[in-house]
Design brief:
This protein is mostly helical. It is 56% helix and 5% strand. The protein contains 23 helices and seven strands. Strands 3-2-1-5-4 form a five-stranded mixed sheet, with helices on one face. A hairpin with a 2-residue loop joins strand 4 and strand 5. Helix 6 packs parallel to helix 18. The longest helix has 30 residues. The chain is globular, with a radius of gyration of 25 Å.
Amino acid sequence: MGRRQRLHRGCRMYGRLTLYLMSAAVFAAALLTGPPSFDSTDGAEFAVCGSRLETAHAPGYPLFLMLIRIASMIMTPLYGHLRLINCLLGALLIPLGTWAFKACGASFRASAAASFLFASSAPVMAQLNSLEVYPLAMALAFTAVALRGTRLGPYGMSSSIFAGHPVSVLLLPLAWKGRPRAGILLPALIPATLLLYIPVSAAISSLAHYGHPSTPGELLGYFTMHSGRLSVPSPQAFYTAVSPAGPLTWAVMLALAAAAGRFRWQRDVPIALGVLFLASYRIPDPAGQLWVLLLPLCLRCAEGMDRLCQRWRPMRIVTALAVLTASLSGIRLADRRQDDMAMRWTMDVFASIPPGAVYRPVAHDCFYAAYATEILGMRKDIVLSDPFGNFFELPLPPPVPAYLGDRPVYISRGWERQPDFRLHGLLFIPANMEPPPPAWNTMAVFSFTGHSPDPMAMDLAAEAWARRMVQTHDPVLRDSFYRRAMELAGTEMTGERIENLRDL
């Protein structure tokens, strides 16, 4: 074997070792920075729906639920065990991202570094260390980009949309190469058959039956459920979506992206589409979808690294240090080790409900209650209901009765149009009940002193303090509770609500 061959073989072994180490680092970071219990967004819902193969919120995420089902059979349906799915997917993002960026023309070293920068950024890591569908969507999107120009390209792109997440369609210019041909477009229809899971699961779901999408009309309503969230682009909405990445990560990414040079439509149009989408889509936790902008932006970063390192060799050390610094910052910002607010809230709520009562939660409170009762086996004595009939077997649309037979009804939200209820502790109870004063000092939510990258977790903590504020008559204590609630509020909407509640 000649010297050149030995050098080439050594470089290949070094490259593989680098990918292994990066993948191991992402896996370890995702595993070690995860929450001690279920998260405050969709993780509890996915754990319940996946372990039972039932119907989650639109658009259903059938492949992700199937992965959860397999994992729950191998291990258990506990959130902490199921979270390993995303830790493994996070490790796969490094080789898949390297493969994708190389397919777009970047060098191996730059592709690997850019993939690590992507996977360790705060918005991405915050999905890898929880139970969310986006890591699967990222892995499939990288695969689609890597397959660009091949016969499997259309199939890969279709898989990223139907088996991953529909927002992947914004990456179509990046994943598409060459002219469309009917022979290779037909296999692209195969991943769409996963959507048949929705009406099939709806017919057999007994606990989680989001939207009951069994008929064609119900299916149409189910798949267009979130269309109303699109609105006129807003700079404030865009800033809210991108700010969780942190200034250091943005400084490194934008500097490397600028070094990539001139505009190229296939590479850069997805960036523009991502900016437009994030500025137009209104959800409480928009940072979860920031990956659709970061993925094409990191391709520019890879090309920028190549240009910088070709012009001046010492830039290899500078760019490596910049990527490492941004990655450490991203992992720190995504740390969820203190985020047990959803569990604290659920335990305090369940502790305040008497045996045999009816509990009617709303929105994410339904996810928490379903997970706590179905997976953890808590409070099997209470009857659970949902105003929209998306969860449980008993729907209770408004107006809600204060009693069902001799069972008192407890509801999680009753600020308006519920004259038969009054706020007591963390819940609204029948107005004619006279229970003992709330045991505020024994509630776990008020001993929470941590932080979470999830604004909904912080909003939940703020909501607890706001409800305590409303029920406190001492002006000094009331003001201190108000300030604590405002400190914890994770979104502007919750801050405005607390302001309005201050005068009640």
